[in-house]
Fold DUF58 domain-containing protein.
Amino acid sequence: MKWIHAARLARKAFPALYVALGLGHPAVYALSAIALAAEFIPRGRGHDAVQSLAHLAAIAAVPPPYDAALALAFLPLLEASLRLNPRPWWAYVAPPSIALVLALPLAGVAPFISLLIPAAYVSLKALVEWGRMVTARIAVEADRKLRTVAGRRVSYVLTISSRPRLRGVRAVIHAPSEVRLERVGVDVGGDSVGAEARYGLGGVKRPMLLLELRSGDGLVSASRRAPHPPIIVTPRARRAVEVGERLLRRASVAGAGDVVEVREYVAGDPVRRIHWKKSLKLDKYVVKLMEAPEVNPVISVLAYASDGEAVDRLGAALASAVAALLVRSPGVRVILIGRRGERGEREVSPGNYVEAMDSIMGEIEAMNIRRLGGALGAAGLLADLVIARRAAVLRAARGAGVILGERAWLRHACRPPPRDVDCIAV
């Protein structure tokens, strides 16, 4: 930065050179006085650009061959102005370019050349900088592999880098609505920014980021697209099935039901039923006698939902409920109620839990109804939308202690609440 301040001091001395080299030319005196006065303008936004343009006008009035020499000598001072006053390239090129058009027919070749030198310098500098920004390879990397469950937020850190490195280039990042950034302004040379993502549906997500690049001197800008690191989103239902499977595996080792008493171990008793704490206290092996589990509880589910995300939430709730019942029971009967009131049944046991839940979830229908104004609706589809009446749902759910379903549709069947049946809305 020291050379930039030195350039500012040198610029104040240049009007004296214009006067010395333009003796006898009143236009040089007038423009030199304007350039000197511009040097003492109170500092503010754009003052360096105004001062540089005033100097270029005075240089163009100096007689040849001094005008071209002064134009070349002024280029370092012009570079300092570009660094201190970030403005688009055309703000520097437009005034000399307009003067170029008028100078050639009115004043001849010499002023044309003195104006062409700074205009060509700024234009070439802007072109090179723009070429660097549009050809550099921009990479967006995360600090770890990104995995989450649908509906849950995952926090991570993104690093934005470029090859070759774009020194001094800043970027404003525009991300899709599912991705939130701690801040949107970053340095493309390896800056890091905190991020958070949330997706309602499972899958491998590969969002695109839009980067608005701007050179450090503000001359040029460019838009680039960069792929976000992939985010593996596990569906809620799949996660619930995995958790339920682990729960049932632990229950099979410990034994289902509650421990009511113990007795002495005899040959042939399963080792997993040994009550180790009691055995240590009694100094002999004893086994747990379990409370007899309930026999095949029944749960019914409205096998339809408004969209894919609602189907995922409903499947997750069903998988969790069935796993909890299987901990105490040898099996669970699941009644599937279609939106026209049709009924289907599935038997689920600890042995076929995963396969049975996959089959059941494959039969839950997504009606693909958009939410309009906070309510469910579908333009042009309402006439074709058939939902089972309350009586049909309760008839299909006969024998079940629980009816599970999406809130928007379950309320029609459970208002007023039916007897001996618990309605669980998702």
About this structure: Residues 298-425 form one domain.
